[in-house]
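Dear support,

I submitted the protein below through the web form. The confirmation email said the job was done, but the results page showed an empty box. After a refresh the structure appeared. I'm attaching both so you can tell me whether what I see now is the final result or a partial one.
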Amino acid sequence: MEEDSTMNDYEVNSTIHEEDSVFSNLFEAESSSVNKPCSSWYNSRMIETDEGEICWILEVEEDVRPVKGQVFDTIDDCIEMYERYAYQAGKPQGVSIDTLNHENSGKRVRISSLQVTGCEAHVIFKLIEGRQSYILDEFEEKHNHQLNSVEHRHLSRRQRKLGISEMTFINKVSTSNIGATRAHHTYNNMLGSYKNTHGTVNDFKNYKNKINCFISSSDAQMLVNRMENRREHVPNFTFEYKVKDNSELECMFWADETAKVNFKEFGDIISFDATYRTNRYNMMFVPFTGIDNHKKTVSIGAGMLRDETADSYVWLLKVFLDTFGSQPKMVVTDQDAAMKKAVALILTESRHRLCMWHITQKLPLKVGKRMFDNTDFKKKFNNIVWNISLSTKTFEKRWAEIMKEFKLEEHPWFTHMYDIRSTWIPPYFTDLPMSGLMRTTSRSESENSFFSNFTSGGAMLIQFMMSYESTMERQGSRLEVLDHQTHNKRPPLQTPFLIEEHACNVYMRTIFLLVQKEIYLGSWRCSQHSVTSGMQGCDVIVVKEIREVKKNIQKVVVGKKKDKNVEVVEDIKTVDPEEAEDGMENEIENETGTGSTTKTVEKVYTFQKDEEKLSHFVEKVRALKDEIEVAHSNSTSKDHDEAIERFLGVTKPSNNDVQNPPVLPYKGCGNDSRLKSLKEKVTEKYLKPKRKCRKCGTLTSDNDARNCEKKKAEKAKAEAVAQALEKLEKK
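What the results page shows now:
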C-alpha cells in the first residue's frame, strides 16, 4: 500500500490490546462458578486452530469489523471504531487484568476477581508520517475465551460507567434527601428499563461515596468558602462563623435578603428551637421561624451550633441582633436553660414566652397517670391555661380552685409554674398584639420536620447547605402559590354585608377564609338575647349563640357571578409587556439545563402516535447521546472532580484553615445503659401488666409473693423478735 512506504520503525505506534490498561474498561472480566449460558447467546463462533486450540471469533457486520489498512484522522476515531466493533459483538470474559506487578515483591498485590487468560486479541495503529493520521497496521481477532452474553451487555464495565445524565440526576435528587438506591429505582422508571440505565445500584452508591471522599476533610472549609463567596456576590447576604482555638468550626449564622424582608414584615413574634440529625457531625441546626400574612411558617435566618451551651446561644443571638438591627417583640422557646439565659442577656427588649405544649406534656409525669386519665383534671387544667379570654384574676382564682380540689397546693412543680405564670399563660400576653398567633414552638417543630424531608443525619455540611437551599426554594414556591391565589381568585361571599366584601379586599385569601367564617357565624348563628342597663350608664347586651342551624340556609352570593354553583371567580388580568419579556427570557433559560429534559419528554409524547417521526426523533437523540458519551468516556478522574466541584459550587481548597468539627453526642443521648428520665420510668411502670400478689392480695406491678412488702415487713418483725428473745436469754 502507498501508506506503508511512508512508515518506518521510528514512528509512533498506538496499540489497542485487551490487557492494555488504557482500554481495560472496554472489556469485562468476570469469573463465576455458575453454568455458562448457551453459546447461541453470544455474537461469536467457536473454531479450532491448526494447533488444536479452541478460540472464538466475533461475528459482526462487515462494515463494523476492523480491516487492515484502514486510515483514521485521529486516535479518537480509532478508539470509536474499535469500541463499536467490541460493543456489537459482546465484551470478552476473563481479560482486562487489573493487578499490580507480581514480580515486584515490594508491591502489594491487589485482590481481584478478574481471571487472567493471556488473550492475544488486539489491534495496532501506526501514525502516518506527514499526514497526522493513523492506519490500522495489525488486527488479531481470535480470543481464547468466551465472550459476554449480548443479554448481559448492559452489565459490562463500560456500560456500567455513569454518564453525565446519571451523575447529574444523583446530584439533583440528593438535595431532596433521596439516596442512591431510591435514585436508581426512580431513574430506571424514568427511562423505562434497568437496561437503559448506565450503572447498577452499587455504582450509584459508589458515586455518592466518591463525592463524600472528595469533600472529606475539606468539608468545613468548602462550606465557609461557598458562603463567603455568596456574601461577596449576593446583595444583602449575611454570613458569620466562629472557630475554636484549634480551628474547628464551632458556630455559624446566615440570612439572605428574603429572610431580612421576612423579619421586617413578620418579625414581631419569632420562635427558635434546635433540631438534630441534620449532618454527620451532630451540629445542632437552629432555624428562626415567624408567621407571614398567609398564616404560614417562614424562615428568618438560621444557625448551626456545635453544642447547646449558653455561650453558643449568646453568640448566635448577638449575630442575629447585629444582622437585623432590632429585637422582636416576643420570642418563644422551650424550657431549655441555656436558651433562657441567652435570651435574657441579649434580647433584653423582647418578651420571652415559654412553649405551652412542652409544659402541658409534663402533666402526666407530675400528677401521675391515674389522676391524669381517670379524673377531669386534664379538662379543667386545659380550660384555664389555653383560654385566652380569661383575665389574670380569673385565671389565678381558678388555678387555686383546681390545686385545692386535687390537693396539689404543696406540689413543687405546680408551685414553680404558678410563680412563672407570666411567661406562659395567655392572659398575661393580651397587651401584646397578635400574641395568640404563636403560643408554642409548634411552628419551629413543624419547620424542623419540614427540613428533615430534605436532609439526612449522614450529610456533609456543604451537602446540608445545598439541601437547605432546596428547602427554601420550596418554601418560596409555596408562598408564591398563595400570593397567586390571593390576587387571581376571589372566594364566594356568604353574606350581604359590606364588611365581608371589605375583608375580602383587605386580607390575604387564607386569612379571609377564617374571617369569613367568623362573619358568617356572627350573622346567622348569634342573636341578641337581652339588653340591660349597667353601671355608669353602660348597656349590657347579651348575645346568644345558636348552635342548631337549619341545613336549608342558602348562601348569599354577592358580586358579578351569574351561576351560584361557581365557587371561584378567576380574574383576567392584562400582562405587562415587561413581564412578557421576562417570561420569554425565563423560557429561553429553561431550554437549557433541566428544562431540556422536560422538552425531550414532551416531544416523545407528541410523536408517540406517529411511529415514523418518533423513530426519526429517537435516532437523532441517540446519535447525539452517543457523541456526548464518547467524549465523556475519555474523561479523566480530574474531569470528574471538576464536575463534582461544579455541583457543589466551590472548588476544593489546597489548605484548610477551618477544620471539620468533631462528632459529638447530642444532649441527652447515650448507649443502652443511659439514665432514664422520671417520665420514662413512670410510663413504663404504668404500662407494665399488673397481677395479684398471693401474699398481700393486692393488684400491683411492683412486687409478687417473692418480694412482697408485707412479706418483708413480717420477716423483719420476726427477726426483731428473735433478736429480742436472744438478748433476754443472754441476760
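Response: this is the final, complete result; the empty box was a page-load delay. DSSP finds 25 helices and 20 strands in the chain.
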